[in-house]
Specification:
Elements lengths: L14 E7 L3 H12 L1 H8 L2 E8 L16 E2 L2 H6 L3 E4 L7 H10 L3 E4 L2 H18 L3 E2 L11 H7 L5 E7 L2 H13 L3 H10 L8 H4 L2 H15 L8 E3 L7 H9 L2 E13 L5 E13 L11 E8 L3 E8 L3 H21 L21 E11 L4 H11 L4 E7 L3 H4 L14 E8 L2 E2 H13 L3 E10 L3
Parallel strand pairs: 1-2, 1-4, 2-3, 4-5, 5-6, 8-10, 10-17
Antiparallel strand pairs: 7-9, 7-11, 9-10, 11-12, 13-15, 13-16, 13-17, 14-15
The chain binds 1,4-dihydronicotinamide adenine dinucleotide, the ligand N[C@@H](CC=O)C(=O)O and sodium ion.
Sodium ion binds next to loops.
Pathway: Amino-acid biosynthesis; L-methionine biosynthesis via de novo pathway; L-homoserine from L-aspartate: step 3/3; Amino-acid biosynthesis; L-threonine biosynthesis; L-threonine from L-aspartate: step 3/5
InterPro entries: ACT-like_dom_sf (IPR045865), ACT_dom (IPR002912), Asp/hSer_DH_NAD-bd (IPR005106), HDH (IPR016204), HDH_cat (IPR001342), HDH_CS (IPR019811), NAD(P)-bd_dom_sf (IPR036291)
Function: Catalyzes the conversion of L-aspartate-beta-semialdehyde (L-Asa) to L-homoserine (L-Hse), the third step in the biosynthesis of threonine and methionine from aspartate.
């Protein structure tokens, strides 16, 4: 629809009807901004943004920001049908998807923060919006308040982005940061992140890396102008990270971060494509991403002409995410008032997703080995066998706790002294590194491979 500004000096200001679907952490903050900043928004848009209603499960429930009772409804379809702009902030696949399709079918514009849905069905929804000549905007879906999608889509549209590497999940960054700096237990740090409104309704999506994987797919979509999906992202979460991993990382001068990485590479057979991966990663303490604390996010972009750029800010939480939702809403509303074609993201190129084995990384491997002559040589030769080279190999004494032995545990007696060996490799093909670790595990001088972590930014 197009709203025209009235010519008479005292004519009432035109209004655009906004439907809000969901009034949780983010939806409540959007409701607050629409209410408390109504005048400022009207001045910027040239029309009032009128909240037509809020779709909720229970209209009588208490919310972070309480609106008059009559604004809450359980009739989502009727609300969607009445709106010029639909803000979907429920999360999940259904009914979010059907309601967005309904809005697009009506020719209404849609704003969403739903990365899970976009990383699964984005192509379909973008195509539907383009066909209907309407807009589907989603800046809130990646890195909360940080303007990252618009810069990738517009500001860098004349450049070739080669790599995007980001801390894109606030919950896991908060947990890892707490574990690293305060020694907090995993479960306590997760409970805090939930309390602070960073975590998804089911925090499994955060800690298993699925949320970051959805964001990796969306980032790659915009950076490489091609339709990637979440099932093309290799994904490992942070649930297996231990205090011992943190100690080993710290001792070696690294910090552990859950990174979402999308990079253009050429595979061994010459195919040009991209690898998308999410996993806990060691970063040197002096790397710009290592300084990203708490629930903050940052996205590090490498482009052929621009060079290195970093986007940093609050990546989760009600008000910061609502800021991104409102940015999209104001931009759409201005277009509806002033006229002009809506632009919806339409991936045009084909960049195949390549298997993670084609990526190049370094590893830090910590192994428990027998303390006897020839061990280092045996390990070095196992590594060399797979064409991998070693940056450093350091023998670390076992902590006193590790020396406490069960009576039945023969491996830990005085006759078989052991130590920890920490190896850092040069960058090599991921598949060769994985084969190296498999060979190391089989060596009889090796009691246990304690941890294997990828290293970036060396
Ligand atoms: N919380 C955050 O920091 C961020 C959240 N997002 C995304 O924004 C969206 C909303 O997130 P939150 O506000 O944190 O979630 P939330 O769980 O706090 O709120 C969702 C609201 O939608 C309602 N809802 C869900 N399904 C419904 C249904 N079938 N019928 C009626 N109501 C339903 C829930 O009752 C709840 O009030 C999600 O897609 C999330 O991934 C994006 C960036 C940051
Ligand atoms: N659960 C997400 C919320 C923002 O996308 C996170 O922790 O980053
Ligand atoms: Na954003």
């Amino acid at each position: 629809m197009t709203v025209t500004t009235p010519s008479a000096p005292h004519a009432p200001q035109p209004a655009l009807k906004i439907a809000l679907l969901g009034a949780g952490t983010v939806g409540s903050q959007v409701a607050r901004i629409l209410t408390e900043d109504a005048e400022m928004l009207a001045a910027r848009v040239g029309a009032r943004l009128e909240l037509a209603g809020v779709f909720v499960r229970n209209p009588d429930g208490r919310r972070d920001y309480q609106l008059p009772r009559e604004l809450y409804t359980t009739d989502a379809e009727a609300l969607v049908d009445s709106a010029d702009i639909v803000l979907e902030l429920m999360g999940g696949i259904e009914p979010a998807k059907s309601l967005i399709e309904r809005a697009i079918g009506n020719g209404s514009a849609v704003v969403t923060g739903n990365k899970a849905l976009l990383a699964q069905s984005g192509s379909e929804l973008f195509a539907a919006a383009a066909e209907a000549g309407t807009q589907l905007s989603f800046e809130a879906s990646v890195a909360g308040a940080i303007p990252i999608l618009r810069p990738l889509r517009d500001s860098l549209a004349g450049d070739t982005i080669t790599r995007v590497m980001g801390i894109a999940n606030g919950t896991t960054n908060y947990i890892l940061d707490q574990m690293d700096t305060t020694g907090a237990a995993f479960d306590d740090a997760l409970a805090d992140a939930q309390e602070l409104g960073y975590a998804e309704a089911d925090p499994t999506a955060d800690i298993e890396g699925h949320d970051a994987a959805a964001k990796a797919a969306i980032l790659a979509n915009l950076a490489f102008h091609a339709p990637f999906r979440i099932d093309e992202v290799y994904c490992e979460g942070i649930t297996r990270i231990t205090a011992a991993d943190n100690e080993a990382a710290s001792e070696a001068g690294y910090v552990i971060k859950l990174l979402a990485i999308a990079e253009r590479i050429t595979a061994g057979d010459g195919t040009a494509g991209a690898v998308l991966r999410v996993h806990p990663t060691l970063l040197p303490r002096e790397h710009p991403l290592a300084a990203v604390r708490g629930a903050f996010n940052a996205v590090f972009v490498e482009a052929q002409n621009a060079g290195e750029l970093m986007f940093y800010g609050p990546g989760a939480g009600g008000a910061p995410t609502a800021s991104a939702v409102m940015g999209d809403t104001v931009s759409i509303a201005r277009r509806l008032v002033r006229g002009g074609a809506g632009r919806t993201h339409t991936p045009r190129s084909v960049v195949p997703a390549l298997p993670v084995g084609e990526a190049r990384t370094s590893y830090m491997v910590v192994i428990r080995v027998a303390d006897r002559p020839g061990v280092l040589a045996a390990i070095a030769s196992a590594v060399a066998e797979h064409g991998v080279s070693i940056v450093s190999m350091r023998q670390v004494p076992l902590a006193e706790d590790d020396l406490v032995v069960e009576e039945s545990d023969e491996a830990y007696t005085d006759e078989a002294p052991e130590s920890l060996l920490r190896i850092i490799t040069h960058e090599a093909k991921e598949q060769n590194l994985a084969a190296t670790v498999a060979t190391i595990k089989e060596l009889d001088v090796v009691t246990e491979v304690v941890s294997v972590l990828r290293v970036e930014g060396n």
